[in-house]
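User: I'm curious what two different proteins look like when written out as structure tokens. Can you demonstrate?

Assistant: Sure. I'll show them one after the other, since each token string lines up with its own sequence. Here's the first protein:
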Amino acid sequence: MIEKQDEHILAQLQKEGRTTNQQLAEDVGMSTSACWRRVRALEESGVIVGYSALVDREKAGFATSAVLHVSLERHDAKFVDEFVSRVTERAEVMECFATTGDADYHLRVVVCDMKAYNEFLDEFMFRLPGIRYVRTNVILKEIKTSVALPF
């Protein structure tokens, strides 16, 4: 269970990850040393897993984004392990979820254009062993994208 002060720290860091410890401590109403210790404890416990910059996908040249619904032919360990291993290696795959329902996995993929997406399918997805089907929903417009948890 995360304490209330830690929630305040995490909420502030999600808003502005480049804030100084001094500013963070002021924002959450703590001393700088106590704030630093709490942040360090959150990092060491694995609650904070890293820091990164948020990049505008389209401005960075990745105009095409899609959600793939993937179903495997068989669910034995060999096919599942290979699928998971290969998918996690691909930079185009931003997220991969094992799910219930019609599809076994849902992937969010970003590429520069439809030609690149077609190459991703032809040269990668359709060559993976054990794939029953891949269905695509091309994202027309991103309404909300967030990585911040709702503290």
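Here's a second, unrelated protein for contrast:
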Amino acid sequence: MADPTLDDDAMTRFEVPEFEELPEDLQDRISEETEEAGFTPNVFSAFAYKPSHFRAFFEYHDALVDDTALDREEVEMIVVAVSGRNHCYYCNVAHGALTRIYSGDPELADQLVANYRQADVSEKRMAMLDVAVKLTEHPDRVTEADLERLAEVGYSPEAMWDIAAVTAFFNLSNRMAMFADMRPNAEFHTMGR
């Protein structure tokens, strides 16, 4: 079992706190993640900078992945496509690893990051990605026609909501990661390959 370690290099623009100085609930959550992953993902080290934001961020993250009409592969595909458009190094690498793991496809994440339109995905999933990227780049251009397209390919109203929620959350996540200059753990680069 790996011991929780908050890497000083998890982000370059703000100080990473000491694990022992964190509130007990944050220590517990970071310990759980460390045990599951085998290392402490740097996003936990970075968000520990502000405990109230850590709690809110990860509570919403957990709701998005635990209470969703999407499968986990679809969630991760959205994250990587959006992060690719936003040029978020941390999320491209970390969620690229998760995309490889959940899809079982070692090439899919790279396709999504480089140009999601060239990814080898179904028409249904391409419609999902088109809406996620449109919401990312031009939210004022999202119309009823986008929801109708999602319905036509088989997404329920709940799934459509979840597509938007995951997209919106990871746009926030990308911007915080980029602002703080969060660095992905080396382990993410090779996972699922």
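A detail about the second structure: Residues 157-180 form the longest helix (24 residues).
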